[in-house]
Amino acid sequence: MHGVYGARSEFVEYAFRDTTGLSKNQFGLSYEPVTSPSPSSSLSSRRPNSLFIRGGRIIDPASGRDEVGDLLVEEGRISESTAKPKDSSVPVIEAKGLIVAPGLIDMHVHLREPGGGQKETIASGTRAAAAGGFTSILAMPNTNPPADGPNTIALMRQRALETACINVFTTGCITVGMKGEELAPIGSLHKAGVVALTDDGHCVQNNEVMRRALDYARMFDLLTLDHCQDYNLSAGGVMHEGYWSTVLGLPGWPRIAEDMIVARNILLSELTGARIHVQHLSSGDSVRLVREAKKRNVKISAEAMPHHIALTDASLEKYDTNFKMNPPLRERIDQEALLAGLADDTIEILASDHAPHASYEKEVEFAEAPFGIVGLETELGLFIKILIEGRVLDWTSLLAKLTINPARLLKLDRGTLAPGAVADITLIDPKHSWKVDSSKFYSLSRNTPFNGWELPARATHTIVDGHVVWSLKNGFTK
Length: 478
Ligand SMILES: [Zn+2]
Known about the structure:
Blueprint: H1 2-15, E1 23-24, E2 30-31, E3 51-60, E4 65-74, E5 77-78, E6 92-94, E7 99-102, E8 104-109, H2 122-131, E9 134-139, H3 150-163, E10 167-172, H4 186-192, E11 196-198, H5 207-219, E12 223-226, E13 239-240, H6 243-248, E14 252-253, H7 255-272, E15 276-278, H8 284-295, E16 300-304, H9 306-310, H10 332-343, E17 349-350, H11 359-362, H12 379-388, H13 395-400, H14 404-410, E18 425-429, E19 434-435, E20 454-455, E21 458-464, E22 467-471, E23 475-476
Parallel strand pairs: 3-6, 3-7, 8-9, 9-10, 10-11, 11-12, 12-15, 13-14, 15-16, 16-17
Antiparallel strand pairs: 1-2, 3-4, 4-5, 7-18, 18-21, 19-20, 21-22, 22-23
Zinc ion is lined by residues 200-201, 227, 279-280.
């Protein structure tokens, strides 16, 4: 019972601190408003840098800016001025033909540290992210042990301080051990610096437990991320239930198992007033549910992954375990619904669900293999191929889903190129076509269904706090 009582005692501690400027929670009690949480990365020890980026196409979805121009970074911040610095020691990046975007944020990443160092570490995962153009990532808590208390969060933050080359933000579990039974100490997790709660990989089945979790999350204005899967409806399922599961003789995981929990979350958000983010939507019916709920101003948000918009369950024809993920690849009709949801902003987030697994784990029978694929190093190119080349989104709306939208949901002081903002910047060459070669990944894992794909564009520079952390030409700076 420690989880429940832990959370309750912290609730009392937070609820009765009565100073000015406090907001009211649903019980009429006060709590401190959330301030922007600080990320962890090894850069914190370095001095913020100055930089001049010349002649790029600057796209800042937060302000609607889209123009060719120069960008000056002074001591780690975007400057009001665009004049070339007189100090000749300030590095200049020639950005002609490149897109200058706010640093990309991926809010769905599995780093596997602590406990899974053979698959990925914070060091390797953040290098993979940087090489994919990402300056900030949100780490899921299904590590070993799971991040269900402040000690694991402190350990992850410390490891990130020592080894991460980009910003790492942390999440905490909803329930102890992600077992879906007792609430994790949500107040302590909040104090330890998590920016969201989730049992990702698992889904809280007990609606009463989920309701209570959301009551606590709302008190701290923490976003709750949910992996939507009804265990009874999806029991034993290893792929989408449909034509191909019948042909291949594999147990199915039907759409309804996702839809049921998405609907549950919409109802619970309305009841509790808590903000819920439904992770990795795969079912077209779930897109419709979220769209309808948003029309009623329910505080629900949603994300889509590259594999669910790039592939269908027909790809499983050869029983290749690199196409096995959770939720599973579905049908063309779902793909089209996801694209429509991205186009009308029902789905405001794009992310990878980067889920590294060692080769020996994936090289087993399909039914036995773990779910999940790596994604950080291919997602930007895939999104550009499917969404820009496919004329689903323009650059501003694509980049919004990778920058300001996740920053706003998670209340991060990131995601814009406005003067004064932290100089996290991604440069993208929209015309640099390349072939995916998984043997060259910085990730420790190779489990991708996209090996050998031709992608039309990629990041060329990943800049954190004004420092070029990685560039396509020169690799990592340290
Ligand atoms: Zn998940």
